[in-house]
Write a structure and sequence with these properties.
There is one protein chain. This protein has 355 residues and is of the alpha+beta class. The protein contains 13 helices and ten strands. Helix 1 runs parallel beside helix 4. The chain binds adenosine-5'-diphosphate (ADP) and citrulline (CIR).
């Protein structure tokens, strides 16, 4: 697209966003001043402000509304990324530096619900970007294929509990794909936030999932991020889930070089995932607390937690099952991000018991 057409789209989209009642962080921080300062800038990949914000311009119900088409966008468009990062991650300022990776003493994490009354399942995931490749909107079809081959051959070298197989999305039957999605193992298809961000080109080419036999260790390839490493299982044994993830990440990191930035930590497509990239969650039933959704949200945010629906972000709760996780991922260590979920969930269970 020529620059004049990009500018025209930007101006029209910005006007509509301003007139909307969008609650997104994009709307909150994209002032006229910031917009004017950034609207003609480009990264060396050729990414524009439109490439960063088109998802939020098209989807006014976005929570965040912005993605980095390439790593350089975080610096070139810092005037809009920095305040959004600060807001989302609970005060990570533009002068702050994300701490070095630290998984802490994995043996101190335990079971959130030994009696099995509230927690249905536990999951901890992190994201990684492969060094030498830009993010989704800038990848070529050849790069997608090359990356998936690298990921697949690397993971097939894992052993013990992590040993498994890689399944490309292309060629997978719709039944198998849907069953994996319904069982919460696989990413969904047709996410409109990612589509609008230009993150779904050549789909299903270059996308796939690796998992061990029990589906307790899984890796998503080229959905939102290059890699999502996931450990999950039924019940509330966060300790076991966490130890498995840490073992796996340490192993994979020896085999694949990942993009890391001194200030931002591990680099991801969405600014909400930067830093540790860790989202530790439980599927949980808290019927008394959840009888009042506003109250549930209020209590969760008191403990820096985020509430999602049963099928993940932008979905509704089914059968009273909520996905509750740590919200911030930056400015704290991996251990502390998981501990934040641990401590908050224990408090929420305590409140539920007292109601
Ligand atoms: P993310 O991968 O960023 O964490 P989503 O919110 O889209 O993104 O969730 C991805 C999938 O993981 C969804 O199917 C969701 O239901 C599932 N999931 C998340 N937390 C849990 C959990 N504690 N137990 C089981 N499934 C979970
Ligand atoms: C949105 O803005 O709602 C989507 N682009 C997804 C943002 C990721 N949200 C989050 O809370 N981690």
């Amino acid at each position: 697209m020529c620059d004049a057409a990009v500018l025209e789209k930007l101006e029209a989209g910005f006007k509509k966003l301003q007139e909307s009642d969008s609650k997104s962080l994009l709307k909150k921080y994209l002032t006229k001043e910031v917009f004017d300062a950034l609207k003609t800038k480009k990264t060396s990949f050729g990414s524009t402000l439109l490439d960063c914000i088109q998802s939020g311009l098209e989807n006014h119900d976005s929570g965040v509304g912005i993605y980095a088409p390439d790593a350089e966008a975080y610096t070139v468009f810092a005037d809009i990324f920095d305040p959004i990062i600060e807001d989302y991650h609970g005060g990570f300022k533009k002068t702050d530096k994300h701490p070095p990776k630290n998984w802490g003493d994995v043996d101190t994490m335990g079971n959130l619900d030994p009696a099995g009354e509230y927690v249905i399942s536990t999951r901890v995931r992190c994201g990684r970007s492969m060094e030498g490749y830009p993010f989704n909107p800038c990848l070529t079809e050849a790069q997608y294929i090359e990356m998936m081959e690298k990921v697949s051959s690397t993971l097939c070298g894992l052993s013990g509990e992590l040993k498994g197989n890689f399944y490309p999305l292309k060629g997978m039957t719709k039944e198998v794909q849907q069953k994996l999605i319904d069982d919460h193992f696989l990413f969904k298809e047709g996410d409109r936030f990612l589509q609008a961000a230009n993150a779904c080109r050549y789909w299903p080419e270059g996308r796939g999932i690796y998992h061990n036999e029990n589906k307790t260790f899984l890796v998503w390839c080229n959905e939102e991020d290059h890699l999502r490493l996931i450990s999950m299982q039924m019940g509330g044994d966060l300790g076991q889930v966490y130890r498995r993830l840490v073992t796996a990440v340490n192993d994979v990191e020896k085999r694949v070089p990942f993009s890391h930035n001194d200030r931002l930590g591990f680099l991801t497509f969405c600014p909400s995932n930067l830093g540790t990239t860790v989202r530790a969650s439980v599927h949980i039933k808290l019927p008394k607390l959840a009888a009042n959704k506003a109250k549930l949200e209020e209590v969760a945010s008191r403990f820096n937690l985020q509430v999602r629906g049963t099928r993940g972000e932008h979905t509704e709760a089914e059968g009273g099952v909520y996905d509750i996780s740590n919200k911030r991922r930056m400015g704290l260590t991996e251990y502390d991000a998981v501990k934040e979920m641990n401590d908050g969930i224990l408090e929420m269970i305590k409140i539920e018991k007292e109601l």
